[in-house]
Amino acid sequence: MNNILEHRTWRYATKKFDASKKISHQDLETLLEATRLSASSYGLQPYHVFVITDPEIREKLKPVSWNQTQIKDASHLIVFAHATDFGEELVDDFITNLSDTRDIPLDGLNGYAEMMKSNLLGLPTDVKASWAGKQVYIALGNALQAAAELQIDTCPMEGFQPEEYNRILGLTDKNLNAAVVLAVGYRSQEDETQHLPKVRKSKEELFTHI
């Protein structure tokens, strides 16, 4: 089995973390950079990522996360929050970054900017939020796989109250909504689920070649 499949077989949704083990600064930076480099529609990245280590905040988040122990015991808690609405600034900021990064005059990007604005800005607010939420999961997937390559354990979590996360983290005022949480750290030897075989559909059931 090659490393790509080994890493994906090794990872599992960690139910119990070893609270005494912390991710190194270097590995955390690598994990976050892999997340930053994720694909995104138009490259716009309509989300923000919060890395939470403050024990007081995590203590507040635990009861609104079904009291799951990962919230406190993981080395770091990563909250992916997507934009609930946006205007021209989302595209304008991206175009400025594109101009600076690739040394392209801004006026040479006007057509591209107008195309994105015409496709996105007229959408209803709920459709904008849904689209932005989908982008979050692309970033989450990259984070999961990067963590596996670093031999860092993870547990992606949707079992929490988004409105309470928004309140505790002050997201509503930033036009953000907590979409998914990723607990990262190292598995406890007491976590029995690490020994269970991975359950997935067979190739024959999952894939159709046309």
Automatic annotation (TrEMBL):
Coiled-coil residues are none
What is this protein's record name? NAD(P)H-dependent oxidoreductase
Q: Nitroreductase domain: from which residue to which, for each copy?
A: 10-186
Among Pfam families, the record links this protein to: Nitroreductase
Give the required cofactors. FMN
Return one GO MF term: oxidoreductase activity
Please state which protein family the record places this protein in: Belongs to the nitroreductase family.
Domain of life of the native organism: Bacteria
Note the SUPFAM superfamilies from the entry. Answer: FMN-dependent nitroreductase-like
Query: Which residues are the signal sequence here?
Result: none
Key word Flavoprotein present = yes
Keywords, alphabetical: Flavoprotein, FMN, NADP, Oxidoreductase
Q: Kindly give the InterPro entries that the UniProt entry links to this protein.
A: NfsB-like, Nitroreductase, Nitroreductase-like
